[in-house]
Write a structure and sequence with these properties.
mainly beta; 5-stranded antiparallel beta sheet; about 10% helix
């Protein structure tokens, strides 16, 4: 009986561990494993970090909620291209289980150009991707 309980406990602990990363991402994040150019939907981009900070621009073509996914902890802000005041974050979530996505911040955006900054980064580069509802 003790062996059966031990086997069940071991099986349960194995179920909680990831055997592979980024293999079962939800549809809006499916492009996370594809490298592309420029921060956009459908693919991820690796951006150089200087002094713990990165900055890039995005162009939004249709209004909606835009998610900015990142592979590490960092402070993400989005600004209108010519604005000094950061947009208000609509929500935040952790990345999907068994993925290399650390977190996703969501903003409500209208068509136009925006500046995205990420601060408090460690390392020489960060991986980012956009989602759009």
């Amino acid at each position: 009986m003790a062996m059966i309980l031990t086997a069940l406990a071991l099986a349960a602990s194995v179920q909680g561990k990831c055997t592979a990363l980024d293999t079962r991402l939800p549809r809006p994040l499916a492009g996370w494993t594809r490298d592309g150019r420029g921060l956009d939907t459908g693919h991820a981009v690796t951006v150089p970090v200087r002094g713990g900070t990165l900055e890039t621009r995005i162009t939004i073509r249709k209004p909606g909620t835009v998610g900015i996914a990142i592979d590490q902890e960092g402070w993400i802000d989005a600004f209108p291209a010519q604005g000094r005041r950061a947009l208000r974050m609509a929500s935040e979530s952790r990345g999907p289980r068994c993925s290399t996505i650390r977190k996703i911040l969501y903003y409500r955006m209208r068509p136009g150009t925006y500046r995205v900054t990420v601060n408090r980064l460690k390392g020489g580069r960060a991986k980012l991707m956009l989602t759009h509802d």
